[in-house]
């Protein structure tokens, strides 16, 4: 059910929840769920200044496989996922995913699964810079 995949991208430009919502808008949908992951000012009780994301050259292919798996549920009508790369500051959207489905429970469940599987399976890594000058990579193999 790849026609349900309306938008998939990994990009350096600013992400827009309006773009994701427009992509998954569908008159057959009874529920739409959206998740926006933003850069927070701390991690593990350490203050964070900024983040930078890097993606493997095949990351978009991995994202497509995740999306296709989510769309195997026939109640999923539309799906979109965008992830940002490059430098981000506190408050920036790092990832936005959305699912439209026949019913709200399917939309909530599929959206949760989409972000969880994206984080677990798509090779995108973040480097956090802390206010004390230290930095660390998260998600790197």
Major sheet: 5 strands, antiparallel
Shape annotation: elongated
SSE run:
EHEEEHEEEHEE
> Ranges with pLDDT <50 over ≥5 residues?
none
Q: Compute the number of structural domains.
A: 1
State the CATH superfamily name: Molybdopterin biosynthesis MoaE subunit
Helix content: 25-40%
Your description of this structure?
- The protein is an alpha+beta fold.
- The protein has one domain (2-138): Aldehyde Oxidoreductase, domain 3.
- Helices cover 27% and strands 43% of the residues.
- The protein contains three helices and nine strands.
Secondary structure layout:
Layout: E1 5-11, H1 17-24, E2 31-38, E3 42-43, E4 46-55, H2 59-70, E5 76-84, E6 86-89, E7 93-101, H3 104-121, E8 124-130, E9 135-138
Helix pairs in contact: 2-3
